[in-house]
Amino acid sequence: DTGGILMDYGLSVANQRIPNWEPELEMVDTVLISHAHLDHVGGLPVLYDKFEGKWCSTGMTAAITRLLLEDALNVGTPLPPRKKDRTDLVSRFIKKNIDRVIQNHVKLDIGHSSEVAGGIVVTPIDASHIPGSVAYLVDIEGVRILYTGDFNLDKSVILPGANLPVDPDYVIFDGTYWGREDFDRSRVYHQMDDIVRNHGPIIIPAFAVGRAQEMLMILEEMGVTQSRNVIVAGLAEKVTKMTGYSGHWEGMKKNKVVLEWEDILVSGGGMMNGGLAREHFEQHRDNQNAAVVLCGYLAPRTPGWNLLHGLEHHRCRVEYARLSAHSSASRLQGYARSCTGKKIMVHTPLVKEPRGIHIPAPSERIVIEL
Question: Which residue segments constitute the domains of the chain, with CATH numbers given?
Answer without folding.
Answer: 4-179+326-358 (3.60.15.10), 185-320 (3.40.50.10890)
